[in-house]
Here is the input.
Amino acid sequence: MYKIVNKREIGHKVHSYEIYAPEIAKNARAGQFVIFRINDKGERVPLTIAQTKPKEGLVKIIFQEIGKSTFHLASLNEGDSIRDFVGPLGHPTEIKKYGTVVAVAGGVGAAEVLPVIKELKKVGNKIITIIGARCKDLIILEDELEQESDILLFVTNDGTSGIKGFVTDVLKNIVNKEQIDIVYAIGPVLMMKAVSEITKEKHIKTIVSLNPIMLDGTGMCGACRVTVRGVMKFACVDGPEFDAHGVHWEELHSRLELFKNFEKVSLDNFKNYKECRCHKK
Amino acid sequence: MSQKIKMLERKSHIRKKDFKQISAGYTQKEMIKESKRCLQCETPMCIKGCPVGVNIRDFIRYLSQNNPIEAVKVLNQKNNFPAVCGRVCPQENQCEKTCILGKKGESISIGNLERYAADVTIKNDFDDIVIKKNDIKIAIIGSGPAGLTCGGDLLKMGYNVTIYESLHDTGGVLRYGIPEFRLPKKILDIEINKLKALGLKVVLNNLIGKTKTIQNLFDDGYKAIFIAVGAGLPVFPKIPGENLNHIYCSNEFLVRVNLMRSFDFPNYDTPVYRGKNVIIIGGGNTAIDSARTAIRLGAESVKLVYRRSENEMPARKEEQKHAKEENVEFITLTNPVKFIGNEKKFVKAVECINMKFDKLDSSGRKNFKEIVGSNYLIDTDMVILALGLRPNPILTSLTKELHTNKLGYLTIDNNFMTSIPAVFAGGDIVGGATVIEAMGMGKQAAKAIDNYLKINNKL
Here is the structure.
């Protein structure tokens, strides 16, 4: 069992948990992920590691309530435990001095980009961070991102915070004005794909962290297979980071649709079970 | 010549609706009748056919005297998990193949008798085992057949044994791969719990190489390590369309159903697609297991596509028979060349080509080649690829000092030691194909580890 030591809501339905898992805390590097399972009937869910505190043995995960497992996880409290927590999985991000780095994140991707820019800044890169969200309520980790970025830009679709529009509009401006050495993008598939199209034209090396459906997370089942430059890769063991310009985006997008109907059934089932229906008409 | 006493099997139209066993096993009467058929040969050929050399004649003699407790003691001398092996061993290619009765009639049903002896005594603990414990720590990596066997033997020799498992439950392929109707998980749990009662420690959710390294284990005070991480890397056919939706490798399909219990979705959270017209590619036991599982999930038709003829199929004959009884259709001498998807990239058909015998290859195995122009389509909404497995690469790729051969199998010396001193390996990660072979290696490796520690630690 793995104990939830700290719990905080850091955005609208976005939660930050610190889980006691000393071995993972000790060995995890930026860019790696864990798989959690809440109880005996739970599914295995991958989540990027947001931060580690090796001395305290804590691993931080940040997640948004989207499906059944994240709703369920959000309903737990400090002091509760989850059944399984395995990691660190996947390869760590390659950290070296590139020069100027643009980090683009959408939604909770902000939590996943934070440890990466932190390490990239340590080795002397200039960091320009672009964070996109639907509205201001979904912007998270503002102070932490500020601290690790030389320039931090927020973009909201409705203009409630920062620039109104999409991260790609901002990215386009930057790459047209400035010499960029590498772009790191993490977030929804459509966002990463759009980022990749912009940087491909400009020949800027771009790394994306992919999030296909996973099962075991140890290279055994092939559920997370993605095509990169025409070759089959398993995101769990060969990734999760890949060269964006080689990724077969349409395939990744369609493979993520696989269990959409099941996911809805599972969530509805959970919500109906949670809510009393006595007085519903 | 006398005939085998058949185990009573449940009717196929009933059993294919659930995940319960095909047969409840012999009754006592049937067991005695069958064991009395044994000639008790002076030079038993059956023992030579057993990969771990179980004294088959003696255990059958005890059974014929209705003494399963003594029978199991004989089995346990060479085999820690007879309830498992009685069910999943390919006896027809091993002990039963060399049984002298089989020359003129039907061989003894050694597997069924083994299962009987194990099942009726399964609740018995190892109370007669007196273990003189030492405090020497040994780490086993992987809780499949090889790891459990090696760990169990070392435990009985007195060592302090810890098994590290990357998944959230023990058993390896016995848990995630072999379906409930062939090996009930209750039996596996009883066997593993017995080892735990003897002092076996199990650490789940620990992927050695990532969570901890081999060096970390030595730093933690382990004096020897046994690597038994198995062959879990799936093989894909490398043909167009193989990443279309609802094309799964058998590992994914079976892990979803067996380990994650998705047949009980949404009571369990993990989903599985229930295909209507399912195509299985492959001819091994995993292919048959996948086909029979698809049937149980409610498929209207399940077709098994295999590129050689039925004679070459590596799956057990008994399992082939069970699959056919449950309406799995065998399409042999046929190979897929392409998967075709709909506009949403879900598979809708498989383009196949007919095959014919070409020549014998250097190892004497029949080679088949495509018949040009014989392509045709089979409609489907779900494909399961069961084309075999390669060794798990994670630990070996992250541990530079571990040497592997070209195919990724760990290289070991005659004493099961890898290229790193005090690190041993066995099971599918070094080669082999069956549960019993992996168990055999686990047993021999336990002896080798004991010898090594005795010499190096001056025990």
